[in-house]
Amino acid sequence: MPPSEHIILPPSVREFMNRRPRATLYKAPGRINLIGEHTDYNEGYVLPGAANLHLIFAVEPASGRDLRVRAGRYDEQVLVDLDDPTIPMGHWSRFVAAVVHTARAHALPLCGLELVVDGDLPAGAGMSSSSALTSGLLFIMNHQFGWDLSMERLIRLAQESEHRTGVRGGIMDQFAIFSSRRNEAMLLDCRSLATQRVPIPDDGPSWFVLDSGVHHNLVDSPYNQRREACERIVELVRVRKPEVSALRDVSESDLEAIARKAAGDDLAKARYVIEENDRVLVMVEALKERDWSRTGLLLFQSHHGLRYDYQVSCDELDFLVDALASLPGVYGARLMGAGFGGNVLVLADHTALDSIRSQLTPAYYVQFGLPLIIYNITLDNGIQIIDKQ
Ligand code: GLA
Predict the structure, then answer these.
(1) DSSP secondary structure letter of residue 307
(2) pLDDT digits (tens, 9 = 90+) for 6-51
(3) Helices 292-304 and 264-288 meet at what angle, rounded to 10?
(4) Does the CB atom of residue 254 touch ligand 1 within 6 A?
(5) Residue nearest atom 9 of ligand 1, based on CA coordinates
(6) Residue 309 alpha carbon to ligand 1 centre in Å
(7) How many CA atoms lie within 13 A of 242 on its CB side?
(8) Strand partners, 198
(9) What sign does the CA torsion over 15, 16, 22, 26 have?
(10) Whose CA is nearest to atom 11 of ligand 1?
(11) What CA–CA distances, in Å, run from 214 to 160, 217, 341?
(12) Whether residue 172 has its Cβ less than 6 Å from ligand 1
């Protein structure tokens, strides 16, 4: 585990610590993904890392058989019964209840806890605050209740918890949130879970995340439908090649062979996944060579595929990517995360920030009536305990 460090605590966490000075502090980062979108559940490649934006938890054991969880950002507290957790759909506490369900399903011991969660990681902005919450809770329980589980097991439990909330997400977010390291992205093979660390130097261009303000809830989005489209293609390919188990194994010529049987939209989505997998591997090389133009071009190509073939973009994100393409100092941009709103990831010289602020922010507001929130992202460590010194 990386060394812990000092951090500025949000007011709700400070207030909790004043009342309970013996509480333990934890932090769980948001997930960023340099490239490889919608490839994880197709057993392909992704290139994620942890963002320097976090959820902070202060936790103390409590008597009773429930979890008492306050969300500082909503100034709201919920009580989740450890013996009878109900999952309240549409409310942030569904992630807490889902984690309790998962722990119970695996016969993991649970005890009462009181905790507060807060931080600067925005919700619904495509940086996986939901995975930061579920992964954070599982990390905390593992630590507080002495489960002694491996990181991989915790990652799987976090993914299973999120599936209980209705979204059949892949493994990327939880993996990145648990195991990222500062100034590194991680080439993750979502089939074998093998990783290769890819240094992201802090003397290169900057990574920005532009929060479009179109905030999504993946349960109501067609995320699961995208997954089903990929599964339909795999089923068709398996008729001729039964050894194929995911789009990871499918080639362009396999797609040609089933072209007359498959829906055109499904074929376009599968083609996007095949191309995106290749782009991940090419980007790893481009980053190693510090070839920022090539890296940026891959970002634009990824967005093009997500927009026209995979169809998970929206007008706001397309407007931003199109405008960024003509701003000086910008190498590339694409929607990041599931899509259907959320954010745009940008690789640009730091000086481009001025023109993003002075030109893009007002133009975006005029067009959509939404503020553009800009984050300068650096790659950070995964989940950890915070040292109280
Ligand atoms: C969400 C899911 C991930 C991944 C991305 C798209 O963040 O949680 O598993 O599928 O969308 O790449």
Answers:
(1) I
(2) 678 999 999 999 999 999 999 999 999 999 999 999 999 999 999 9
(3) 170
(4) no
(5) 170
(6) 17
(7) 0
(8) 185
(9) negative
(10) 338
(11) 27, 10, 5
(12) yes
Contacts of 9 (CB under 8 A, 6+ apart): 17, 25, 56, 58
120 is catalytic: no
Q: Which of the residue ranges 16-20, 70-74, 213-217, 382-386 would you say has the lowest mean pLDDT?
A: 213-217
Task: Give the mutation target among 38, 121, 174, 343 for probing the ligand 1 site: most ligand atoms within 8 A of CB.
Answer: 38
CB distance 276 to ligand 1 below 6 Å: no
Distance CA 132, CA 330 (A): 29
Catalytic choice (40, 66, 118, 173):
173
Instruction: Give the ligand 1 atom nearest the CA of 171.
Output: 9
Say what the alpha-carbon torsion angle 242, 248, 250, 255 is, to the nearest 10 degrees. Answer: 130
Q: Does ligand 1 have an atom closer than 6 angstroms to the CB of 208?
A: no
* Residue 366 token pair: 């005029």
For 136, the 3-state DSSP assignment is: helix
Query: Which parts of the chain fold into alpha helices (H)?
Result: 11-19, 94-105, 129-144, 151-164, 172-179, 223-240, 252-258, 264-288, 292-304, 315-325, 352-355, 361-368
Residue 277 · residue 44 · CB < 8 Å: yes
What whole-number percentage of the chain has pLDDT above 90? 93
Q: Which residues pair with 195 in a beta bridge?
A: 188
Q: For ligand 1, is residue 34 a contact (CB within 6 Å)?
A: no
List the structure tokens of 314: 């929206």
129, amino acid identity: S
Q: What is the pLDDT of residues 124-162, one digit of tens each?
A: 899 999 999 999 999 999 999 999 999 999 999 999 999
- Interacting residues of 275 by C-beta distance below 8 A, sequence separation 6+: 301, 305
Query: Which stretch of DSSP H or E encloses residue 28?
Result: strand 24-33
Q: Which amino acid is at 154?
A: L
Q: How long is the chain?
A: 389
